[in-house]
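Forwarding the complex inputs:
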Amino acid sequence: MTTIDNQLQLTRAARLESLTDIHAFMGRASRQANLSGEVAFALRLSVDEICTNIMTHGYNGKEPGWIQIIFQWNAQQVQVVIRDNGHSFAFHKTAQPQLHDSWDKRRVGGLGIFLVKKMMDEIAYHSDPLTGNSVTMTKWLNSS
Amino acid sequence: MKIRMKQYNDVTILFAAGTLDALTAPALTKAFEEQIAAGHARLVADLKKVDYTSSAGVRVLIRALQASRRHGGDLRLSAVQPHVNTVLELTGVTTILKIYPNVVAATASYFN
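Prediction (whole assembly, two chains):
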């Protein structure tokens, strides 16, 4: 994002109980950015999926840490950065869900990241042993 | 998530309300499991008051569908809201179970 006109932040414990606050934050941020219902939903779902992934897997074997959500926007795009200090994650190597299997063969893995990739226009993942992990998701406002 | 249940002959209707995410999904899972364990495998989940689901909700529905059919029944949905329907379509769920516009139609489908 070349220029950030506006930014909001939220930091919470990486526990499922934080999802309620995260949903509320995304609602407030989307209203403040005057986003359409569709864009707001896409962002809310994507943030939910990434945060849930961190909460469920990011701190396995460790004391649960934190999740920081940075919501920033200008006239052309909204960008959400989600940071944590848990285990790194092979974001682009997640299994592709088999969506056309019959009902008795359907498996339930990989749906979260799949939905994020469907909802967002750009996704970048970065992991550093010193600064932690970050997922940067961009939604272009003109294309929605 | 709030869940209310109603019995119509041998069909159990679960009325769900609220947000379906990883925090709230276990409650719906438990409700489905209890009904199937009690021998009630013909299920309707009315989602009129469910305004949102993540993949957590999709997993609950797939597992409940599988369990109900393996016990000789089914899971049918009613009154799915637009954003929930988007998630169900993207994840292919709409191709493996039946969705009805309202709970009356979903319940009646078991007797047609």
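Strands of chain A lie at 6-13, 66-73, 77-84, 122-128, 132-140.
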